[in-house]
Amino acid sequence: MAPHAKIVFDLDTFEPIIERAVRKAIATFKQQLPADKSQTTKLLLTHEEAALALSVSQRSLSTYVESGDLSQVRLGPRTIRYSLDDLQAFIQENKTVSQINNKEEIVHGKHPS
Prior knowledge:
The protein is mainly alpha-helical. It is 53% helix and 7% strand. The chain is elongated, with a radius of gyration of 27 Å.
């Protein structure tokens, strides 16, 4: 069996190489980010994102769609998305009377007891 050679790295030699590689990776990553983050608001959410936004299971989200209570946007044969406006409308339509009354009381300066 041949003895294993011990490899010694000189940190002074490799540190600038590693630094340049990291800087280059960060610069490349930053170039891929949009310059103005306010322009990147998602208008459409995936099935999983919409379920998370509503705090329901993905199966419950499907049930809302199947019953006609929630609309979906079909972008292709297998690409389905949900608009933020539709999700917000769904929330408004499904508020209970007590939630609506509490909001009206708070808006008018009264706090529910």
